[in-house]
Write the structure tokens for this entry.
Amino acid sequence: MISYLVYFLAGVLQDILFTLNIRFVALRKLWPAVVTSFLTVVVGMLVLYNILSDLDTKQSIPAIVAYALGIAAGTFFAMKLKLEFKKK
């Protein structure tokens, strides 16, 4: 059960990072865009690697669903997040 929560939270984190990345790209902020892009991919690949290598078939489907629900929640939270970045 704890592992599903971890996958959920990883999905939330990944989608918030992805949304921030899109905002940084739109604002043409090079280094924040590069860092958030890197972190987004690292989180996603670590989760995918873990699901494929460490979980059996009965655990992998619920883990994927928990991860997808986390990504959906991350989209919700990122859309509600009111971060203002000044354009230089």
